[in-house]
Amino acid sequence: MSARPGTAPTVLHIRFHPPGGEPEPADYEVLLDLLEAITPVVQALPPDAALLDISGALPYFHTDPAGLAAMIRARALATHSTDTTTAVAPNPLLAHLAAHTQPAGALRVLTEQQVAAFLAPLPPTALPGIGPAAARTLAQLGLTTLGRIAATPLPTLQRALGAGPGTRLHQHARGIDPTSVVPARPEPALTAEHHFPADELDPDRQRAALLHLAHQLGTALRARGQVAGTLTLTVRYADRTCSTRTRRPAQPTDHTPDLTDTAYRLHHSLGLQRARVRTLLLRAGELAPAGTAHRQLTLDPAPDLARLHEAAADRARHRFGHRAVTPASLLPPPPHGRWENSPARERAAPSSWEPDHQLQ
């Protein structure tokens, strides 16, 4: 662990809870300014969280970790009407886990002496990089909690998951995290989010939501004259844990089919079989001017024709609204309750699709 025995934990993880849900990008920047008035070592974790190294702030403000966290919460509420969930721990991993197991407004100070008991009952999916597929592999070995994993020999984990992932899991299950807080502001990005009205287990409905989010991002990128170099998918589950994967398209793009294909690949890589999904968040990162992007030359006219169709659809949406042109698989079924000659569409489309998303 990063802290010496007997020392106070000095890594603070904070999540913001503004009245309207997740903070808008401009509001998030202002909240980061508030944190940097406490300590200059602030690492942004968009869209709604941050890490702080408070080792220098504790003696400066003549307080302990709980007192400093309470002060930050009071300032956020007083100046921005934004509540917080805060955890202080010996390293970033433990601070993240402690913050995500607390309700809004809560504070948890996790000392080294409490780490083993805190980690023991948590499921493997609470750790970053452990999705449902890896959890199923571990469950076949009876490793359903971090306590059991911590007691498992390293070679067993390496055989099950591979040398690198097995080693990381072995360390994380014991609360070992060699990383530190790195000061960083959020990179320019566009984020589209879909909240399911109830826990969603159907992969077809999840893919339908991803299709809509990819269309939203593609339309926004083209309107801004930008391309995305990365696409990140964050899946939040019913138990408030989440999984995140990032992938680069073949080349920086604003083309909706490329974004959709990348989103589907990210979704498939998580192996979400019967996972209870609450929220899907798709983030386009490493934004750059579209004029700087290089396109692979090809003799196939289909990509250029598809872009012409896409530009026409964008003009229609700009003139008549975002529903003017919609993928057929997202249309609600006709009154008779079925798509004629296309049963696949009926399965893919929600019965009354109403996009519940935020685009930032």
UniProtKB/TrEMBL annotation:
Biological process per Gene Ontology, one example term: DNA repair
Key words of the record: DNA damage
UniProt biased composition (Basic and acidic residues): 337-360
Residue ranges of domain UmuC in the record: 31-131
Family (UniProt): Belongs to the DNA polymerase type-Y family.
Entry's Gene Ontology molecular function annotations: damaged DNA binding; DNA-directed DNA polymerase activity
Domain of life where this protein originates: Bacteria
Keyword DNA damage annotated: yes
Described function: Poorly processive, error-prone DNA polymerase involved in untargeted mutagenesis. Copies undamaged DNA at stalled replication forks, which arise in vivo from mismatched or misaligned primer ends. These misaligned primers can be extended by PolIV. Exhibits no 3'-5' exonuclease (proofreading) activity. May be involved in translesional synthesis, in conjunction with the beta clamp from PolIII.
Designated name of the protein: UmuC domain-containing protein
Annotated stretches, region: Disordered: 1-20, 324-360
